[in-house]
Amino acid sequence: MNASVVEKLDFPSLREKVSAEEWDTRVQLAAAYRLTHRYGWATTLIYNHISARVPGSEEHFLLNPFGLRYDEVTASNLVKIDLDGNILDDTPYGINEAGYCIHSAIHAAMPDRHCVFHTHTEAGMAVSSLERGLMFTNQDALMFYGNTAYHDFEGIALDLDERERLVADLGDKMVMILKNHGLLVTGRTIGEAFTLMFFLEKVCGAQLAMMAAGGEVIEPSDEVKRRTAAQYKLSSNVCGGREWPALLRELDTVDTSYRT
Ligand SMILES: [Zn+2]
């Protein structure tokens, strides 16, 4: 699974070689990478990963070609792998092993989570290193109240045994803060995962700004927290239905090469 050095960027289109459903997923996942770059969350060079399950398949999912920047990802150069990490495409690219470990764990255990999104942003890493974790002191943060899991740091996720603990810690939550590491979001769609990551990233940044300001913190009551979280209906309502088409329109105004 180790990638060799990537020197070749041009890659033949897979559009006619895969199902219409897989192609659509490839286009959307490539868009998620491009938007992640555009929003400044691709903060660890070629590392980190966003994955999406191939429609109609329990066991196949798509991951970024290891060695490419997020702004180089296209629908065709995404790498299809199975839950055992075997690369299923005829591709010169490899995948990141830690990415395989984290993403295969969740795709295998949670068939309704079709997209898994992991970042190492400054805000995410900072909140992941705080004993108190994510604070629920503003409206947007309360979207995640009662829906945020934590996973202890064990080193770079290369030990496949960690998959069991990742899944156990995530439970039925939508997002998980990987302690001393970064953020992980799951989505029932790619649009949902991206939208949740947008808000999680934003509230992590807001928390750091609040903590840096140093004043006394106003914290809503537990009752208000519960009520606000219930209003978001994160568990029952798939979010991103309006946001994701808007984000694709944004991307299409600047660069449509992700669709190739
Ligand atoms: Zn990571």
Shape: globular
**Which CATH architecture is right?**
3-Layer(aba) Sandwich
- By secondary-structure content and strand pairing, the structural class works out as alpha+beta
Average pLDDT score: 93
Unreliable stretches covering 5 or more consecutive residues? none
Q: Tell me the name of the CATH class.
A: Alpha Beta
Ends apart, CA distance between termini: 24 Å
- From the alpha carbons, calculate the radius of gyration and give it in angstroms: 18 Å
Percent range for helical residues? 25-40%
Number of strands: 7
The helix count comes to 7
The percentage of residues in β strands lies in 5-15%
CATH-defined fold name = L-fuculose-1-phosphate Aldolase
